[in-house]
Amino acid sequence: MRKILLLSSVFLSVFTSLLIARDYRSHRSEAFFMPQYISGKQFDFKDHTSVDISSRGGFGIGFGYNFTENFEIAGIFSSTNSSYLTTIKNNDGTLEKMSRNLYTSSMSAEATYNIFDDEFTPFISANFGFTYVDTGIHIEGNPGYCYWDPWWGYICYDNTYTSTELSYGATVGARYDFRDTLYLKGGVGMQYLDLKSDNTPFFTTYTITIGGRF
User: Do 121 and 112 form a contact (C-beta atoms < 8 A)?
Assistant: First the structure.
């Protein structure tokens, strides 16, 4: 009888510890850093104009909350900078090619579903937000502005064409939670940016996420 009670106690302790060990994410907040690589793509517009954006790197930072082991909501800020070649139509009807730098920054909300409740799990996520786009193209007739810096002298900025566009996308990948606070994620996704082009304005994105739970 004593042996049975002892074995039962050991089994209960092991079973309880396993249950506790499985509670990796539930009701815990997260902060993370997210390096990105985004594929290049050409977008076509009316009147034979186009924009050919180079592949580029970027980064994101964010905060999230795990309602369960499987479901998380996060807010993300991300930024990229790349070169692009554009073909524009002048007032006289001629086409002109020019090279410029493109800057974007995005604010988005993301919902993630972790398929398993273990430390290693595949996941799927969807995001929705807005992206600020700075084309780097100078606004003709607008001289921009300058200011005096005591260290660097006069610093000048052009006024350029900018816009804020709707963006959304989806990602699939895998996540691993370490026993303490650290976790790693890797994913590949499709990101849509409403550029009003003739072809579908989406990019392929590759991300590595390094985060901590608290």
Answer: no
Tell which wins on pLDDT, 177 or 20.
Answer: 177
DSSP symbols for 154-198: EEEE--EEEEEEEEEEEEEEEEEE-SSSEEEEEEEEEEEE----S
- Residue 196, judged by CB atoms within 10 A of its CB (0-12, 13-18, 19+), counts as exposed
Global pTM value: 0.79
- Report the amino acid identity of residue 154: Y
Question: What pLDDT, in 10s, does the model give residues 74-96?
Answer: 999 999 999 999 887 777 778 88
- Look at the block and give the residue holding tokens 């807005």: 130
Q: Rounded to the nearest 5°, which phi and psi values hold at 171?
A: -140, 145
- 205: closest CA among 82, 58, 63? 58
Q: Which domains does the chain have, with CATH numbers?
A: 2-213 (2.40.160.20)
Q: Widest CA span of the chain, in angstroms?
A: 99
- Residue-wise DSSP of 80-119: EEEEEEEEEE-TTS-EEEEEEEEEEEEEEEEEEEES-SSS
pLDDT for position 17: 47
Distance CA 17, CA 10 (A): 11
